[in-house]
Structure formats: C-alpha cells, structure tokens
Amino acid sequence: MNPEPHIQALRFDIDAGLGGRAKVGLIVLQTDQTIEHEFATALRRDDVALYHARIPNEMDVTPDTLSQMEADLPVAAALLPPAFEFNVIGYCCTSGATMIGEGRVDEILRRVHPNAKTTNPLTACKAALQALGLKRIALITPYTAEVTAELRDTLALAGFTVSAVGSFNQSDDFTVARISSGSILAAIQEVGAREDCDGVFVSCTSLRVLPVISEAEARLGKPVLSSNLATAWHLARLAGITDTSNNAGRIFQHQLTSQD
Q1: What DSSP designation does 12 have?
Q2: For the domain bounded by 123-225, which CATH number is listed?
C-alpha cells in the first residue's frame, strides 16, 4: 500500500480580485428570465464584475404583490455581501420601484450598503431620458391597466409627456418573458411612430428588447430605451464607466447629465 502523499504548502499572492474597475450588484426578481442574459452583453467590460441576488416575488404582477417586495428587499440586499464593497447596486424591477417608491428602494439598499450608489429601472429611465433630452415619449408595458397607469402617472409627475401607451396586458411574469422580441419590435414601431413622441420606453426587465434595439431605433429614427438597457447604462455611469457601446442602443453614447 502506497503511503499518503505529502501535502505541499503552496505560496500565493493576493490581488484585487474580480471587479477592479467596478463591482456591480443586482437584485433580480425570482421569476425574471431575461435581465442577467441582457446585462451580460450590455455590461461586458474588462474588470467589471456582476453579482446577482434573487428576491422572492409572485408570478402574478399586481400592486399588492409588487408592494410585498418591500418587506423582502433588505434580505435580498444582504445576500450581496457588503464585504465585496460594491460600487453600485440596482434593484431590477420597474413596476416594483414604481409601487414601493424610488426613495424607499434607495433607503433600504443603502442601509445594507451605505457606500454604494443605487438605482432601479424607474430612476434609470428618468436619468436616461434626461441624458437623451427627451420630454415626449411613448410607453410600452406588459402590465395590466392598473400597473401601467401607475407607471404612466409617475413619469408624468417627473415632467415627461407620455404621448402614447401600449400594453400587452399580461399579469403573468412567466408569459411576459416569453413575449417574442419580434412582437416587441412590432409594438415599438406601432406605438413609437407617432409624431408627438420623440422616443420610446419599453418597461419591464423580463421583456427581451436587446436583440431588436438597433433595428428598432433605425426604423423609428428615435431613441428606444428598455428597463434593462436604461438600468445597465445608469449602473455603468454611476460606477464611473464612461464607455460607449454599439449594441445596446443610443443611450450608451451618452453620459450622465449634471442633475444625476
């Protein structure tokens, strides 16, 4: 019988690890099937690290189920280890941020991560619209009328004219994630073609806008934002990443305005 091998003690050095340029934390809905895939493309940069935590949510999207996430948000935020020293953290639910409130979301995240900047798709959308200089927009959602109206009114209160609204009228998040990118492109073209809007915002992190963003903007001749791409852009800019991108929409050609 051969003797057990001696375990050699190996020498090592320690470096800064992943994310030397930026560490980005994401709180993703338990039912989301899209955002991680799109962020992996939109935020692919050398030495930028993405870390995800999932937050419980109901498959049925209603004001009550969205508001319930407020109670679960501190636990989800703590699953992103504070020791990682995140530069920026995003709570990735447009309708949830609308119902809970952007300020309340920021308060909860910064309680766990006091040194991190924060955003969410609603805050990111407003910042992106400002950077693009857009005031009149078309809004596309997958939501029920009640949730869609709340988002429309929130944007209006922020000073944006919502000239047209279209919805797929779905409350099942699983179904929303299966709406084809072709259907989304057709909706963007249909709703966004109006002369009284200067750009389009496609709300919901589950909608697969990235594959058609370039074609949508080319067909309309207008900027098109999505929850995912606006949030990815805002996270990058808040983290000090000023790179442009050719595959994630016009917004990535812009920097933050002085108001952000």
Answers
A1: -
A2: 3.40.50.1860
